[in-house]
Amino acid sequence: MSALTGILYAALIAYLGGWYTGYWSGNFSLLLFILTVVTLAYWLAERFHFAPARERAAARLSEADAQRRAALSAQGIARVDGDVEGARQEVLRQPWWLDWTAGLFPVILIVFLLRSFLFEPFKIPSGSMVPTLLVGDLILVNKFHYGVRLPVINKKIIANNDVQRGDVMVFRYPEDTSLDFIKRVVAIPGDEVAYINQRVYINGQAAPLQPQGDFYDEDSRAYRPHFLEKLGEKEHQILVDPRREPLFRADRRDGPFPYQDNCRYSPEGVRCTVPVGHYFVLGDNRDNSRDSRFWGFVPDENIVGKAFFVWMNFGSLKRIGSFN
């Protein structure tokens, strides 16, 4: 068993090393599930086989020592050298390969349950959600807000809250589900959404915008026009620079993508009808975000959870807190 454990650890190190160096794309949810199952198997083996076997061996050792002392006592020898307790504790000691498998099972199980069903941490890698979220923000995602989903396969088994316009949502990128994206939900199933001349329209109504002055964008090292946009009942900050050519143009879109026929493109932007079970998302940094304007809709089965809290930014502790 020690050799098998060594092989498993070598495989784990090789997998993590290849993932870190970019030789292949890893799946942390699947890895955590496998680690939970493997350590559970070791934990069960330890509890019902290995630990009882060690206890029986320790009991036999104590029994043999007692018999030896009784035999010597019968011969009139009352004083016997040697203490079997040290040897007994050595027999009962858990070997390293069980300590590093069965011993880790409770910790891995707690992490697996928390990450799969309650909260999952993410790091913001790009500026597509500036000014709401900055590069380097460490955020928490509520995994049960939209319903309970089975880990790895992400199948919803218990429904909870519906996705609302204005939610900041983490989801699996439709073109590569091994990647997690974060964007703002702009339109829900049945909505007619348009992004025309850098302005959002929902069911024919322009989303209200209020100028907020200039915002210093760290990525471009320049001041950018800053607005407060309202989607439904939710207000949030966005960056839109009317002086710049829009990032999005019809000839730059990705494609084809599912339900592309629901969208109509023009030099001014795009107009789409959101299909059932799908969502239209945009980055808050509208001139620096690749989103539904380019690759289409987010299906419900790709949803990971609702982002709601910045728990750390090592460059600025003032970033800690909730956000809209």
UniProtKB/TrEMBL annotation:
CDD domains: S26_SPase_I. The chain crosses the membrane at residues 28-45, 97-118. PROSITE patterns: SPASE_I_1 (PS00501), SPASE_I_2 (PS00760), SPASE_I_3 (PS00761). It is a single-pass type II membrane protein. The active site is at residues 128, 183. Keywords: Hydrolase, Membrane, Protease, Transmembrane, Transmembrane helix. Its EC number is 3.4.21.89. It catalyses: Cleavage of hydrophobic, N-terminal signal or leader sequences from secreted and periplasmic proteins. It comes from the Bacteria. Pfam families: Peptidase_S26. The keyword Membrane applies. Belongs to the peptidase S26 family. This is Signal peptidase I.
